[in-house]
Write a structure and sequence with these properties.
Blueprint (H helix, E strand, L loop, with lengths): L1 E5 L3 H12 L3 E6 L14 E2 L7 H20 L6 E3 L2 E3 L4 H13 L5 E3 L1 H7 L13 E4 L3 E3 L1 H9 L4 E4 L3 E7 L2 E7 L4 E3 L2 E4 L5 H6 L10 E8 L9 E3 L4 E5 L3 E5 L8 H14 L8 E9 L8 E4 L6 E5 L3 H16 L5 H4 L5 H5 L2
Helix pairs in contact: 1-5, 1-8, 2-8
The chain binds flavin-adenine dinucleotide.
């Protein structure tokens, strides 16, 4: 079975690898370089802390487990960083209620005293911690997406980079071939749309109207700095995690609105939380576009109107890609995964029109 996967972000790489394991011959096509889309500018926190409804929470929990399995399978892998996540800020009672609600769902969560928080994150200025303590979610992690993509694509996948998919040759309700901008034509028994923020354009090539409400977001990368930050931390004005090579990745909802002032404030807030960050400079500021289907939920699996066309598009794609990639690959090779994918079908948009 020849499958063309459109897009070499985390989704395209994960779907491609899952298809190869099922015996398919896979070509992953990307307009640019693998990992240069949203997957190259993401906070990439692997979690299910604020995911609703319940089916979406459960999908993310399964995504977390899939990452843990892959990391255990490749102990020398260099993409998965366990250590959990810490959060505080806002109304303590509301945060405690969130911890309780997640615990009731079986999600690993606990309350830490300030001293316990400092044991985990000794670089924090103790005066910045709330006396009531913080919430800790031990099962969470962060991922270096480009290393994950490199690993997944290294397994018997033909990668065509720097050549955009320009159109599909259809006969009736079946895609026969994928046409690239270069003029190259790839004969296909199935096509998977993993085009992230561009998914609507690639859906339109098959006559499918996929509503997207993508959201541009800003990330600030510091220079390498010797600060003991070991996990994902959500403090009131700043979200941060380690980034490769001793760098630190900073984000806040305010910085998404753009502007140098917001970047400067974010760095000041980060340095007041972790005083060691004062020694860092801003190495780069990148904008990533969150790929968000119209109702916020993933679009995964087969499509009723085009028999051999499949979707793997969502926000939280770093968390979801490995698990969702397996489910989508099952459907591509003919297995029905309605059990898991019913809430995430493309057709829900047509029904609501
Ligand atoms: C600031 C920010 C923070 C985020 N934080 C998190 C987080 O903490 N946890 C989490 O799980 N998720 C997070 N996300 C979301 C997550 O990063 C995305 O869901 C995920 O990276 C999407 O991966 P993808 O493979 O679908 O898309 P992409 O990585 O964008 O890959 C799609 C690829 O398709 C290619 N393409 C597009 N059109 C064509 C075409 N016509 N022909 C060929 N190729 C094409 C593009 O070049 C691109 O490389 C965040 C996103 C952002 C922007």
């Amino acid at each position: 079975m020849r499958v063309v996967v459109v897009g070499a972000g985390v989704y395209g790489a994960a779907v491609g690898a899952a298809l190869v394991r099922r015996g398919a011959t896979v070509t992953v096509v990307d307009a640019g370089a693998p990992g240069a889309g949203t997957s190259g500018a993401t906070f990439s926190w692997v979690n299910s802390r604020n995911k609703q409804p319940l089916v979406y929470h459960q999908l993310n929990v399964a995504g977390m487990a899939a990452h843990q399995r892959l990391a255990a399978e490749f102990p020398l892998g260099d993409w998965y960083f366990a250590g959990g996540g810490i959060e505080w800020g806002g109304d303590e009672a509301a945060l405690r209620a969130k911890v309780d609600a997640l615990l009731a769902l079986g999600y690993d969560a606990k309350w830490l005293t300030p001293a316990e928080t400092l044991d985990l994150e000794p670089g924090i200025d103790p005066d910045r911690l709330p006396p009531g303590g913080t919430a800790y979610f031990p099962g969470e992690a962060w991922v270096e997406p480009r290393r994950l993509i490199a690993h997944l694509l290294s397994r018997s996948i033909d990668v065509v980079a720097g050549d955009a998919v320009a159109g599909l040759d259809m006969s009736g309700d079946v895609v026969r071939a994928v046409r690239l901008e270069s003029g190259r034509v790839l004969v296909a028994d199935a096509v998977v749309n993993c085009a992230g923020p561009e998914a609507a354009g690639v859906a339109a090539m098959a006559g499918l109207a996929l509503p997207m409400r993508n959201l541009p977001c800003v990330l600030v990368y510091t220079s390498p700095v010797a600060v003991p930050l070991s996990r994902v931390v959500h403090a009131p004005d700043v979200h941060l995690r380690p980034e490769g090579g001793g760098r630190i990745l900073l984000h806040s909802s305010e910085v998404d609105r753009g502007g140098q002032e917001a970047v400067d404030k974010l760095v000041r807030d980060a340095a007041s939380l972790y005083p060691g960050i004062r020694a860092a400079t801003v190495e780069s500021v990148r904008t990533g576009e969150r790929p968000i289907p119209g109702d916020g939920l993933p679009v995964l699996g087969r499509v009723a109107d085009v028999r051999n066309y499949f979707f793997a598009v969502s926000h939280s794609g770093v968390t979801l890609c490995l698990h969702a990639g397996e489910l989508v690959a099952d459907e591509v090779v003919g297995e029905d995964r309605e059990d898991a994918l019913a809430p995430f079908r493309f057709e829900r948009f047509e029904e609501s029109r």
